[in-house]
Amino acid sequence: MALLQIKDLHTYYGHVHALKGLDLEVEEGEIVSLIGANGAGKTTTLRTISGLISPREGSVYFDDENITETPAHRIVEAGISHAPEGREIFSTLTVNENLNMGAYVLGGDTDTIEKNRRRVFDLFPRLEERKNQLGGTLSGGEQQMLTIGRALMARPRIVMLDEPSLGLAPMLVKAIFNTIREINGRGVTVLLVEQNARAALKVADRAYVLETGRIVLSGSAKELLRDERVRKAYLGEQ
User: Fold this and answer.
1) Among 10-19, 40-49, 102-111, 133-142, whose mean pLDDT is lowest?
2) pLDDT, tens digit, for every residue of 126-163?
3) What are the tens digits of pLDDT across the range 202-233?
4) Which pLDDT value is given to residue 87?
5) Residues 205 and 31 sit within 8 Å (Cβ to Cβ)
6) Containing H/E element for 21?
7) pTM above the 0.85 mark?
8) Among 223, 229, 216, 180, which residue's Cα sits nearest to residue 200?
9) CA distance 158 to 112
10) What is the crossing angle of helices 110-123 and 170-185, to 10°?
11) Which residues neighbour 236 within 8 Å (Cβ) at sequence distance 6 or greater?
């Protein structure tokens, strides 16, 4: 069984049927991208997996365990971390304090927390330089680093990244995608939601295309990069 498996997932916002029978799998060690237009249901998928939204039907399995009704904090403890869209850092806390918030599931294990912090600083040296600076005073790129770093503080088996390149300059976008490769190279599975479809497909092993709450295409990232429908709809090619 895959590390993460979604079966026939139906999620609603009130009467709005946001996810319509979603099926998705992520194998351990993969980078899997979920691409689609605004409103397709990408963020809703991640929020449902992480327990922030309860589905009306269907199941979410992680490491063979059904976590569909599991509280969000227990899902983090199980090994799934979520770096949300829009960063959502704590602007009035320092970088170190933000990272501590990501490690809350570790309780008082200070040795492990410090080891995890060192791994984050190795990945993002800029954060170490800014460790005593308030989150709200960081640049957009630095805040994105902090969002990802905070998600990694719990030592997840899988990290879900929601639009990590949103609003960043092209040079920073390239750096973020290089970092995603490095995170994966360190043994963390990645589920990536990203509107920059070309960059997402170049970094991924496999991908799913989501339209109005349904998976309409899936396959290897290389296959989808060559797919005429994807090239026209998401890569801006005629």
Assistant:
1) 102-111
2) 999 999 999 999 999 999 999 999 999 999 999 999 99
3) 999 999 999 999 999 999 999 999 999 999 98
4) 78
5) yes
6) strand 16-26
7) yes
8) 180
9) 18
10) 130
11) none
pLDDT in tens, 56-73: 999 999 999 999 999 999
Task: Give bridge partners of residue 218 from the DSSP assignment.
Answer: 208
Q: Residue for token digits 């397709």?
A: 40
Beta carbons of 121 and 64 less than 8 angstroms apart: no
Place of tokens 């609003």: 167
Query: At how many degrees (to 10) do helices 110-123 and 140-152 cross?
Result: 140
Residues in CB range of 71: below 8 A, 6 or more apart: 51
Tell me which H or E stretch contains 189: strand 189-193
Report the distance separating Cα 100 and Cα 83, nearest Å. Answer: 15
**By three-state DSSP, how is residue 165 classified?**
coil
Report the pLDDT value the prediction gives residue 59, as an integer from 0 to 100.
Answer: 98
Q: Considering only CA atoms, which of 236, 71, 70, 88 is closest in space to residue 162?
A: 88
CA distance to 118, 231, 236, 238, per residue, from 198 (Å) = 32, 9, 10, 15
Residue 235 DSSP class: S
